[in-house]
Amino acid sequence: MATEQYHEPPNELSEKTRTFARMITSLIEEAEAIGWYQQRLSLEKDPEARAIMQNAQQEEFKHFGMDLEFLLRRTPKWQTILKEILFKQGDIVQHGEQAEKDAD
Ligand SMILES: [Fe+2]
Fold it and tell me: What separation in Å is there between the alpha carbon of 65 and the centre of ligand 1?
């Protein structure tokens, strides 16, 4: 159904919010695809089929990253929090808790 991505009446939402909702839906779909390829790859034995699936999963990594970057550029607080968590060594939970404190 075309409106499943909305939890509020779409005609009451701004164009910006509808675009945001579409991109959130895209992000979810890319994450699902990454997970589905991961499951297929864990079972597939044929090397050629595996190579194709790995290539496809890599495409989904890229799509997920572009969707996420789009959303972060339009959501400064989300971007600020993720800057404290992503691409860092150490305890992920601690980074998350610190990011939440810093954002308040
Ligand atoms: Fe994709």
Answer: 10
